[in-house]
């Protein structure tokens, strides 16, 4: 497995890798990829956390909770081409929601929205990012003991103070490592972006795809250099992730 | 019991809407008539079901999934068994290896594999049952490992093995007749998870120019809108069945649901 990867950049000169830094559109691809990954990781983490908390807290019926965790287990695993199409059918130019808005007299496409753009990709990615967050964070949210909350309110703290001084600090390592997981998940996604835009938005994976299949010009060395760049980004993420994970398990029951 | 919270319900409902509307939209799309675009007709499903290519690709993907499952289990059941029995020190090493696919996702993996296997014989390189299955075994490794590892941790490997060997069973009998039945649930969930992964894997298949089920879906997406909705729904269906099967076998055996990554 490791050997397979070494083959990717082994024996290459530095020329390919340094081209990453010096070529405008490649640099741009990295910037777009990282931007989308950051946005969807942060938004996905936020919404996932809030939904997970809303579904898990006491007072919410148990079936809501099991419905959400079951669905998340499935949704985090689909993605790719069918997901892209589901959103084309929803928010594409003739999508169901788009048409519905048209009938209400509001054409989103005339107001500068298009699904086949960075914003569009972000909306679609959230479809698998939020469930992944719910799955990853649910055990941690579960670990927030009721006694802590009762103790703080007995001591006269407000809900905000509870979150500021107890809830969030306990959850923080889990949230951070989940964000890294989400970042990597979206950074590496190829099929969904390809199915959505067939390569209009230049992400790094899309660029690798173009280089490999090469309708115009096949450029395996650029693909290898790009893949190496992705590997470096993800490896850095991993270096932050592993120690965080160790910290997280301290609170696990 | 705490009071009823309006904001919690608001979040739950908007979350549910965000997840359900695209599925509903795809369904509405799929029952439109392919000529007139009006509701309701099953013609889009007819187009797919009568397409020879649909059956060819879905069959190929299914066979690839079975091969991947067979190889993964043959490879990893004895390995993980042995690690649990004799080399527990190696367990952290293997679970670290299982994190590697996070750093080397399919899009990077395919670049490496295409280059690494360039010199290999054609019966392997140009054959989906060779090249793709090799790639999918790597792709499925973390899921298979975590699933099986949890299964082995739940049973007492040492006692079972010693009892079996003391009664005169060979190693092979021990593995097949004693250990395997005890980790059946773990092996089954690993298998279903692998099935879901292989049936939906697009990146590696398309970039190494093989025609599997997901590449067929993409081809339909680019050419016919309403049948595309139909075939997308079918693909969702396969993922759902596979994942729900895991939950069902897991509920009886007490195993946990898996955390997977989207592709």
**Number of E-state strands of chain A:** 0
Oligomerization state: heterodimer
Strand % of chain A is under 5%
Strand content of chain B: under 5%
Percent in helix of chain B? over 70%
Task: Describe the protein.
The complex is a heterodimer of chains A (about 250) and B (about 260). Chain A is about 75% helix and about 0% strand. Chain A has helices spanning about 1-10, 15-20, 25-55, 60-75, 80-90, 95-105, 120-140, 145-155, 160-185, 190-195, 205-215, 220-250. The two termini of chain A are about 35 Å apart. Chain B is about 75% helix and about 0% strand. The two termini of chain B are about 40 Å apart. Classes of the chains: A mainly alpha (about 250), B mainly alpha (about 260).
What are the key terms here?
heterodimer; A: 253 residues; mainly alpha; 12 helices; disordered N terminus; B: 263 residues; 14 helices; 0% strand; globular; disordered C terminus
Layout of helices and strands:
The complex is a heterodimer of chains A (253) and B (263).
Chain A: H1 2-9, H2 14-22, H3 24-56, H4 62-75, H5 81-91, H6 96-103, H7 118-142, H8 146-154, H9 159-187, H10 191-197, H11 204-213, H12 220-248
Chain B: H1 6-30, H2 43-49, H3 52-85, H4 91-97, H5 100-103, H6 106-116, H7 122-125, H8 128-154, H9 157-166, H10 171-182, H11 184-200, H12 203-207, H13 213-223, H14 225-253
Helix pairs in contact in B: 1-14, 2-14, 3-8, 3-11, 3-13, 8-11, 9-10, 11-14, 13-14
Question: Could you provide a short overview of the structure?
Answer:
The complex is a heterodimer of chains A (253) and B (263). Chain A is mainly alpha-helical and 253 residues long.
């Amino acid at each position: 497995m490791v050997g397979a990867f070494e083959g990717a950049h082994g024996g290459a000169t530095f020329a390919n890798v340094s081209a990453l830094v010096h070529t405008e559109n490649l640099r741009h691809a990295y910037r777009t990829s990282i931007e989308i990954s950051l946005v969807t990781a942060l938004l996905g983490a936020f919404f996932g956390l809030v939904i997970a908390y809303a579904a898990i807290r006491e007072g919410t019926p148990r079936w809501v909770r099991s419905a959400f965790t079951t669905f998340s287990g499935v949704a985090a695993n689909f993605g790719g081409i069918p997901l892209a199409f589901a959103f084309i059918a929803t928010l594409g130019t003739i999508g169901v929601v788009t048409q519905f808005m048209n009938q209400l007299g509001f054409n989103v496409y005339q107001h500068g929205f298009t699904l086949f753009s960075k914003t569009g990709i972000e909306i679609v990615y959230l479809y698998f990012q939020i469930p992944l967050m719910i799955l990853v964070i649910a055990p941690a949210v579960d670990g927030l003991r009721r006694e802590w909350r009762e103790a703080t309110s007995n001591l006269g703290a407000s809900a905000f103070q509870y979150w500021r001084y107890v809830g969030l600090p306990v959850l923080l390592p889990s949230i951070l490592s989940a964000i890294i997981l989400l970042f990597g998940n979206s950074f590496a996604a190829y099929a969904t972006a390809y199915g959505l835009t067939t390569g209009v938005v230049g992400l790094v994976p899309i660029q690798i795809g173009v280089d490999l299949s090469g309708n115009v010009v096949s450029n395996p060395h650029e693909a290898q250099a790009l893949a190496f760049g992705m590997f470096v980004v993800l490896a850095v993420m991993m270096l932050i992730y592993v120690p965080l994970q160790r910290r997280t398990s301290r609170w696990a029951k | 019991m705490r009071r009823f919270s309006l904001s919690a319900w608001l979040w739950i409902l908007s979350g549910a809407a965000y997840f359900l509307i695209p599925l509903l939209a795809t369904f509405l799309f799929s029952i439109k008539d392919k000529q007139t675009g009006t509701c309701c007709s099953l013609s889009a499903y007819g187009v797919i079901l009568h397409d020879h290519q649909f059956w060819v690709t879905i069959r190929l993907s299914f066979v690839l999934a079975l091969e991947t499952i067979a190889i993964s289990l043959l490879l990893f059941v004895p390995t993980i068994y042995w690690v649990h029995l004799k080399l527990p020190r190696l367990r952290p090493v293997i679970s670290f290896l299982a994190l590697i696919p996070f750093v080397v996702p399919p899009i990077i993996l395919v670049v490496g594999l295409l280059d690494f296997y360039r010199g290999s014989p054609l019966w392997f390189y140009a054959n989906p049952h060779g090249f793709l299955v090799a790639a999918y075994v790597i792709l499925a490794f973390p899921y298979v490992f975590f699933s099986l590892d949890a299964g082995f941790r739940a049973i007492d490997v040492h006692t079972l093995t010693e009892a079996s060997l003391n009664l005169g069973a060979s190693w092979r009998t021990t593995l097949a007749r004693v250990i395997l039945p005890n980790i059946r649930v773990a092996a089954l969930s690993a298998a279903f998870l692998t099935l879901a992964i292989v049936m939906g894997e697009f990146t590696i298949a398309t970039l190494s120019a093989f025609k599997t089920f997901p590449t067929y879906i993409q081809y339909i997406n680019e050419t016919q809108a309403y049948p595309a909705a139909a075939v997308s729904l079918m693909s969702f269906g396969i993922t759902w069945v596979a994942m729900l099967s895991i939950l069902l076998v897991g509920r009886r055996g007490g195993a946990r649901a898996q955390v997977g990554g989207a592709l």
